[in-house]
Amino acid sequence: MTDSVTPERQLRRAVASSFLGSVIEYYDFLLYATASAVVFSQVFFSNLDPLVATVASFGTFATGYLARPLGGLVFGHFGDRLGRKRMLVLTMLLMGIASSLIGLLPTYEQIGAWAPLGLVLLRVVQGVAVGGEWGGAVLISAEHARSRRGLWASFTNAGAPCGMVLSTAVLTGTAAVLGEEAFLGWGWRIPFLLSVALLVLGLFVRLKVAEPRLFRESRRSARAPLVEVLRNRPRQLALGVGVGLAAFVAQSTLTTFVLAYGVQAGFSRQTVLNAITLSSVTAVVGIIAWSGLSDRLGRRPIVLVGALAMAAYSFALFPMVDSGSAALLVVALVLGQGVIHPMMYGPLAALYTELFSTESRYTGASLGYQLAGLGGGLAPVLFAQLQSSGAGTTAISGTITAFCALTVACVLALRETSGQNLDTPDGAREGAR
Questions:
Q1: Rounded to an integer, what distance in angstroms lies between the CA atom of residue 330 and that of residue 431?
Q2: How far apart are the first and last CA of the chain?
């Protein structure tokens, strides 16, 4: 069946599947992020002081990020052994089921401490699912691509802000229709239960995708892909984690943390959500554009300039939010999430693909990306704690800058990969330029 389909059509199917799958996965994953900032502290931690409840809610948000490397390892192993497509179907099923169950979870007032415990468990399942999703989705596009790998692989990353737009729109739309009391009472469950419909759509598209030729024609299959990565690619793995950390710290700052911070600064929740939604739309364009440019200029220059710009921008972000001007809030988020952050984040899809060889690429790319993703889960918790201890936003900006400095150092230590030939049996050891 797959032989009758042209490579170009296979590529289009793969990119469409990766993009749609990423939108759905991140709709579910980031829906939780938004809900943790505006709902869960009141629903699942109602027995705590409001500020402490916010920290606790962000803590459950972080558990999803902590579980992502586990998902990358498990699904990466079997993705390298059995194929990318099978694992992508499983990750989508896992995410859809977990998100739907969150929508059915009783509150603290109904079942006491079992409510937050159940929330944490389901968040872990979400983290495992999204941890396995990203690597397979990127690879199934990148390994089908014969040229412009940065562009085609970036559609998976572009799915993340699309998922944010969709989750924010559904959550805020539900709140606007039902009103505050009904929304907090039961309406917040609706966006999570809609995951069932998205799951059906995603599986319909994903099942039509073929395994990449690179995987099907691979000369050998690693018995233990993780051992292969740790033995032969430890430097690439470590540097890859360092390159991605700042992008995730910035991402969660510009979405999850700024949502809570903006409300504390005096904006209505809807105003902040509208600004985040608009910036997420521009992020889609930014990710694809900067990633496409990285095919011409290289991954390193784009990510390097983005990290330096983010370090400087982090000191302007909070004064712009504190200004009280809705227009400045929008400018701050569009500039940060729509222009600067995509420079750091977009090229990562192709870069992680190019750091590893075919027989262990799913494991290596997933592990590097998901370990870097820990920065996104821990940053809101750390920043909320800095706030509660009385530290100013300068300390938060300084922390972001430190992560950006780490990214700069790791980018400079890596060789350029944009010209890498993925067909090369041991291509991860070859420099592109």
A1: 41
A2: 38
Closest to 17 measured CA to CA, from 88, 67, 73, 75:
88
Q: What is the tens place of the pLDDT at every residue in 366-418?
A: 999 989 988 887 887 788 888 777 778 889 999 999 999 999 999 999 999 88
**Any idea which residue has 């916010």 for tokens?**
54
pLDDT at 261 over 60: yes
> How many residues would you count in the chain?
433
Q: How far apart are CA 256 and CA 140, in angstroms?
A: 29
Task: Give the separation between CA 293 and CA 320, rounded to whole angstroms.
Answer: 29
Tokens of 286: 């930014």
Tokens of 414: 């890596």
**Amino acid found at 167:** S
Dist. CA 272–CA 252, nearest whole Å: 14
The answer to whether 212 and 31 have CB atoms below 8 angstroms apart is: no
**What is the pTM assigned to this prediction?**
0.83
H or E, element range at 283: helix 269-297
Tokens encoding 65? 């990020």
Name the residue among 89, 319, 318 with its Cα closest to residue 205.
Answer: 89
Contacts of 392 (CB under 8 A, 6+ apart): none
- Quick one: DSSP state of residue 4? G
Q: What is the pLDDT of residue 429?
A: 44
Burial 180-193 (b: 16+ CB within 10 A, else e): eeebbeebbbbbbe
* pLDDT (mean) for 268-277: 86
> How far is Cα 213 from Cα 139, in angstroms, rounded to an integer?
11
Of the pLDDT bands very low, low, confident and very high (cuts 50, 70, 90), residue 431 is very low
Q: How many CB atoms lie within 10 A of CB 419?
A: 13
| In contact, 20 and 205? CB cutoff 8 Å | yes
CA 145, distance to chain mean position in Å, is: 22
